Amino acid sequence: MTSRARSVATALAILGAVWWINPAPSSAATAVLATSQQIGTSVQGRPIEVACIGSGDRSVLLVGGLHTGPEAHSVDLVLEVARLAWSSDLEVPAATRLCILPVLNPDGLVSGNRTNARGVDLNRNWPALNWSADAYHPEGGAVSGGSGPLSEPETRALWNYVLQTRPDVVLVLHCCGAVVEANDSADAGALATAFAAGASMQHIAEWTAYPVTGQFIDAMDRIGIGAMDIEMEALGDIALDDHRAGLVRVLDALEGASSQPPVVRQAAVTRVTYRVLPGDTLANIAVRHGTTADVLTSINRLASPDLITVGQVLAVR
């Protein structure tokens, strides 16, 4: 196990009791709620955990370790942000809540691999409209997008958590490029502009360096959740001050908007529909259209995957 994996494992072992640290609350933080929960497990059974601080109605989810291997320093950055927040060195405004998922790919963190234990690239395994089993990343070329969207327990854990909690924006750390790219939902574009300005990065409209299929931020568009990819500037350099400044801009922007109801602007996509036939189930409809029952349940706002009727028209893409 690498020294990074050992230090992260130690931090995560503490999570079940009190996440990372448990300082006595300052007078400015007496109303702050700190919680932690396990949202799933990896292929090899390692816990995937989220901790939140703050009690506001607006929420930010910060995700590290979606890609590990050379990009594992994203975990270091998230843990440092957590240390600052839980020691009150990073103030979470009263109207907001900061949730932190330090590592989505704990198996890759321990093994030193970029992919999960089944060799799947976890940023190519989401139910975006362009999902493909055959995907690409410049490090190694061809990569696996999985046997289907959300085929991996790690991506299913985060997908279900986002569906349940519906954060205002999800920030996902990658490397490298010193750029920020947002999806088209909610206020992600404006929040990405704010983050980029604070962190001295460039906000780009679209990633054009190489093709990306089945990525997280595009899948979030399908359920109206604002999300952004933050490409850290250099391998091994967490640039804590810059990223902290960017995060503060996002938190402050949400604080300023707290008196207004959140605006959800669904991305403009071409919908493909299917009319339910006798004998159909949501599961077999999903298989035929290259998606999952969970995705169809979400995008059609179904109370239960079992509650479909003959003749009902479903959006399948």
CATH topology type of the largest domain: Aminopeptidase
Q: Give the overall average pLDDT.
A: 84
Main sheet makeup: 8 strands, mixed
Query: Which word captures the global form?
Result: globular
Structural class: alpha/beta
Total DSSP helices = 9
Q: Could you say how many structural domains there are in total?
A: 2
Please write the string of helix (H) and strand (E) elements: HEEEHEHEEHEEHEHEHEHHE
Strand order of the largest sheet: 1-2-4-3-7-10-8-9
The CATH architecture category of the largest domain equals 3-Layer(aba) Sandwich
CATH homology group of the largest domain? Zn peptidases
Q: What distance separates the N and C termini?
A: 42 Å
Strand percent estimate: 15-25%
Class of the largest domain, according to the CATH hierarchy?
A: Alpha Beta
How would you portray this structure in words?
The structure is a single chain. The protein is of the alpha/beta class and 317 residues long. It has two domains: 3-256, Zn peptidases (Aminopeptidase); 273-315, Roll (Membrane-bound Lytic Murein Transglycosylase D, Chain A), CATH 3.10.350.10. 30% of the residues lie in helices and 20% in strands. The protein is built from nine helices and twelve strands. The protein has helices spanning 3-15, 73-86, 106-111, 153-165, 188-199, 216-222, 240-256, 282-288, 293-299, and strands spanning 34-41, 47-53, 58-63, 96-101, 134-137, 141-144, 169-175, 179-182, 202-204, 226-232, 273-275, 313-315. An eight-stranded mixed beta sheet has the order 1-2-4-3-7-10-8-9, with helices on both faces. The chain has a two-stranded antiparallel ribbon with strand order 5-6. It has a two-stranded antiparallel sheet with strand order 11-12. Strand 8, helix 5 (188-199) and strand 9 (202-204) form a beta-alpha-beta unit. Helix 5 runs antiparallel to helix 7 and helix 8 packs across helix 9. The protein is globular. The chain starts with a helix and ends with a strand. Mean pLDDT is 84; it is low at 6-33 and 261-270.
